[in-house]
Write a structure and sequence with these properties.
It is a single chain. The strands form three sheets. The chain has a six-stranded mixed β-barrel with strand order 1-3-2-6-5-4. A four-stranded mixed sheet has the order 10-7-9-12, with no helix packed on it. It is elongated and about 70 Å long. The chain folds into three domains: 97 residues, Ribosomal Protein L25, Chain P; 82 residues, RNA Polymerase Alpha Subunit, Chain A, domain 2, CATH 2.170.120.20; 65 residues. It is of the alpha+beta class. Helix content is 35%, strand content 33%.
């Protein structure tokens, strides 16, 4: 999907300039890529339209730059944006300039088609393992999303990335063995009861070994620390203790006399 966006190149930088733009109802932004970085002033209505289309990462944006010293018309991707968590206003936007003649790498959403899979109708559980795919292609063939038909999947069946049909000019960059979507068998009541029973037994019987384990670790650490301390004491004062012992024994013998 392609959008039009008119922006103005600005000169002022810093947080103060960005705050001033927001007070005026504008959105500060930046355009980078292709060896250049430009600070922008963006009209919020046009940018919000792109975001509401839910095609932010895959939206080709035709930029018209007012105040640009060269090439006023450019193509970019909306790479990132920041939103005020309280008011919901867009605070900043990053645009990445691209060349229509060079491949780009982006992540696009993955949409399941074909309705409810056959295995789910029989009681199976659908697992949507991958929500987006990392692809490489020329900007002209960049899709808004990748469609996968999972309607024919029965219980215990799935589709790997290598099973997904790919359009000409698009290359998948993820592992082809990754599971994209699958239908798991439903959990039986007997298995559920078994898991619950084992969980309760584990909770009741796991307390005592945990304490014993901790004591063992502490004891091991204390033993090693004690050995190290004793070795250090011997190294520092072992000779002095050895010399003092005979003197103490001699004084005790004199007292007895």
């Amino acid at each position: 999907m392609k959008f039009e966006l008119a922006v103005t190149v600005r000169e002022k930088t810093g947080k103060g300039a960005a705050r001033q733009l927001r007070r005026e109802g504008k959105i500060p932004g930046v355009l980078y890529g292709q060896g250049e970085c430009l600070l922008l002033t963006i009209e919020p209505d046009s940018l919000v339209k792109i975001l509401k289309a839910q095609a932010g990462g895959t939206a080709l944006v035709s930029l018209t730059l007012t105040g640009a010293k060269s090439t006023p018309n450019r193509t970019a991707l909306l790479r990132d944006f920041q939103v005020d968590p309280v008011e919901g206003n867009v605070l900043h936007a990053d645009l990445f300039e691209i060349s229509m003649n060079k491949p780009i790498r982006v992540k696009v959403p993955l949409h399941l088609t074909g309705g409810v899979p056959a295995g789910v109708k029989e009681g199976g559980i659908l697992h949507h393992n991958m929500r987006e795919l990392h692809i490489e292609c020329l900007p002209a063939v960049l899709p808004d999303f990748i469609e996968v038909d999972a309607s024919g999947l029965n219980i215990s069946q799935g589709l790997h990335l290598k099973d997904v049909a790919v359009r000409e000019g698009i290359k998948f960059l993820d592992d082809p063995e990754h599971m994209v979507v699958s239908v798991a068998a439903p959990m039986t009541e007997a298995k559920l009861e078994s898991l619950l029973a084992s969980g309760v037994a584990g909770a009741e019987g796991g307390k005592e070994p945990e304490v014993a384990g901790k004591g063992k670790v502490e004891g091991a650490e204390g033993g090693e620390a004690g050995k190290a301390g004793a070795a250090a004491a011997d190294a520092k004062g072992g000779d002095k203790k050895g010399a003092a012992a005979p003197k103490a024994e001699k004084k005790e013998a004199e007292k007895k006399k």
